[in-house]
Amino acid sequence: MVWKQPSPRVRDLIRQCSQLVVNARPEWLDELDAAVLGANRTIASDPELAAAVSHSNRANMYFWGTANVRDPGAPVPANTGPEPMTIARELVRRGLDAYALDAYRVGEGVAWRRLMEIAFELTTDPAELRELLDVCSQSISAFIDDTLAFIAGQIELESDELTRGTHAERRETIALILDGAPITRQRAEHRLGYALTGNHTAAVIWSDDPAGDLSRLDRATEAFGQAVGARPLSVLASSATRWVWVRGVNGVDVATLHHAIGGESDIRVAVGPTADGMDGFRRSHFDALTTQQMMARLHSPQQFAMFADIELVALVTADTDRAAVFVKHALGAFEFASAELQNTVRTFVGEQCNASRAAAQLHMHRNTLLRRLARADELLPRPLAESGVNVAIALDVLRWRGGQLG
Question: For the chain, how many structural domains are there in total?
């Protein structure tokens, strides 16, 4: 492509646009994330991949913007920084094709619409607008094309690297077991160095900060094994995610696990139920993945989650829009009540609506409990006596989600 130097006036307008892009408002970035993740469920349901795509989209905006602040209207080279490298690595380690890169095109469209709005705020002269938009359109399109070409090349390199060595063999064996392929237990055990008889408890351990010190994930995996008293089997699902299994334990003590890993605030753990044999190895893993996906979908502030605790919430929140409507219908104004009042109601329902047991559980006088329940009835759309089940489920959704649904 032959680039024509823009006029001095348009160069100045491009610089002004780019300065606004470099200092993008938080709501612009939120709009970008919402559009990209909303267009691709594969990315949105994977917290690590979603974070990597978000970082990469923002890095691309900043990269293009700073280049045009320095030299307005000049060709912008591909972004070959750490963010595109991370995207390539994450796609390959998940076995995803480059179709997930369509998210970049969605991001390009959002950024372009925002830039047009900025352009129309800077000038109303038709000739200036025509030249400004023409130059920026070509520049953004060429920049994204070149960056995607770089990522595609990195995907090939990462694929070559991943298909060599013992990690590839372990991952391949895990994939065969999870797919229910006809691999014998003895052969799988030999390749994994892990006995597939007895009980198995699976976990997904990941970091919300893919750019951080990922050696902490290995330490977290070891801490998980120590917390349950068993040597873990671990496979590198991606650069910031470990799939983990432990054998011969009957569940996981969350308090012990929190003591072992809780100091690492960006490390998250989703744990499946304990189950028997190769089929249990599979089922526990898939339930751990369901738990992780629910935490990501709800932007949950919780660091640890057990499938047994979230199974119903995961079903209810599979459609976040409908879940938001359910919560509003079930709770009404009580959705915004104090955490103390909500916890009182949650405990009361959990104790089969027995006031004496609930008061003892909460270490409060029975009359205090009854006053709080009366206050809850004032806020609820229907009395608690008529809607206890729905209220309890809605409160569980509130417990696990971060911010607002919908």
Answer: 3
